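Notes from the 1:1 (GR / supervisor)

We went over the backlog. Supervisor wanted to see one worked example end to end before approving the batch request, so GR pasted a single chain during the call. The sequence is below; no edits were made to it. Supervisor asked that the structure be written out right there so they could see what the output format looks like.
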Amino acid sequence: GKQGGYSDTLIGWKTDPFCFGFFPQNDSIKELCYRSEDAYAKYYDINREAARTDYTIKLNGAFGVFSNTSASILQVNEQMWIINHLWFVDQCICANPSGNHCTNPPCKNYIWHWDTFKTAQYLGRERIGVEWIQN
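Structure output shown during the call:
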């Protein structure tokens, strides 16, 4: 597929030396991994609260000499599957997005809903500076 207009940098706790198995976190208590990715397809099924996003993963560090890989993220309700297409083999990871942040079980992290911000209120603005090194 052709890359679309959605790019992001995932930031999460480092769980392995090559940053393959990290998940985005909302704090920076531990050593972090940074990964740039471009989405080239996004699908959303409102009735089933399901989504699929196809990404091109930009590699850096020791793997930067290899070509980029791709991944498909599938989520239905609180279940998530990450399918990494790693050059010669596909890897499927069953993930629990809310598992590491749960302080009052049971915790469920559902996919975004089309009217997620229906009750949002404007509270104000804050100017922040974000800084990171990307190779």
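Supervisor's comment: The chain has a mean pLDDT of 77.
Batch request approved.
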